[in-house]
Amino acid sequence: MSGKSNEKLYNKMLIRPFTYASQSVGNSSLTLAVLLAVQIFMLLLTKSYSALCVIGCSLSGSLCAEAADRLYHKSYHFSDMTSAVQGIIIGMLLPSTFPPVSVFFITFFTMIFLKYMFGGFANAWGNTAAITIAVCWIIGMKAFPGLIVTKNLLQMRNPSYTLIQTGVFPVFKFDPPITEALNNSLFRILKVSIPDGYISMLWDTHSVIPAFRFNFITLISSIVLFSSGMLSILIPACFITTYGLLVRFAGPFICGGIPGQGDLLLAFLTSGTIFCSIFVIQWYGTTPLTYTGKILYGIICGVLAFMIAGCGTSSVGMIFTILCANIISPIIQIIEDKNNKKALYSMLDENLKDEGIR
């Protein structure tokens, strides 16, 4: 090899000596912020200015709490983007009717208190955004909408279609042509058909809580996050599957409806189910690390969601589901640590025996 060839090889080795197993927290937070910005843009297009005001106040409160914590500790933290994402998530999960000034102060003081209690981003075992929303619910419970579905409604075969017919979920002008095209092509092959209104529910439910509205945008965001490896699909998949099965079969059994006819669309497209499963349920440090632990955590979240949020249209059911799951997660992580230690000691003993030391 010539001297120039050796120099080029040496430079290549220095530029990228390591390969990252996963995306950094900074890159993941930036991606989350960009995907959430798409939903904010949709709010702007639909002239949802009150919702934007609430999101702006929660974002400001979160960033101010981060700045105050940084000044108190007199150190630099690489969590501005993470705090921004948390602030946006808080605002997205609050009703647009919530007083903006109250949102700012509740977010600010709650975040400051949680930073003091948890000791910073890396040590937080509970989802600070979910806790902040729960505090807002306790203080301003009247601002949150109540359940739309009743026991009598859940006894019907398609409660969501009934709500569409009564105007609870408005139907867009583009809905009938798209529904007809899908029924004549894809659904015709599957020998099923869907009525008008479901496409509108998927696109925009017009909920006063922004995170409940643009389910199609949230689904596209999930594809980006899962395909890029920034988020694991295991926990959301186990959560959605468990929750869906319970809604489908256990829901009608409890309410006296038709067995096996629970309304999955109502459960998935309301209550922020999809949004929480993507942006909230597996926040950093709040979930188990092993595959078994993640599967168990996802199943527990699904069971809790059915017990707390019910079969749909709950305004804060998913938030309290996540908080309850956060309490259970440390127990799973303790069991994981014990199992890992046992496996490590067993492996060391086998190696020592093979070498004749024991």
Produce a short descriptive summary.
This protein has 358 residues and is an all-alpha fold. Helix content is 66%, strand content 0%. It folds into two domains: 24-143, no CATH class; 151-166 and 219-340, no CATH class.
Task: Describe what this molecule looks like in 3D.
The chain has helices at 3-15, 25-45, 49-73, 80-92, 100-118, 128-139, 151-154, 159-165, 175-184, 186-189, 198-203, 215-227, 234-255, 264-269, 273-279, 291-308, 317-354. With 358 residues, it is mainly alpha-helical. Helix 3 packs parallel to helix 5 (100-118). It folds into two domains: 24-143, no CATH class; 151-166 and 219-340, no CATH class. The model is unreliable at 8-20 (pLDDT under 50). 39% of the residues are buried. Helices cover 66% and strands 0% of the residues.
List the helices and strands and how they pair.
Elements: H1 3-15, H2 25-45, H3 49-73, H4 80-92, H5 100-118, H6 128-139, H7 151-154, H8 159-165, H9 175-184, H10 186-189, H11 198-203, H12 215-227, H13 234-255, H14 264-269, H15 273-279, H16 291-308, H17 317-354
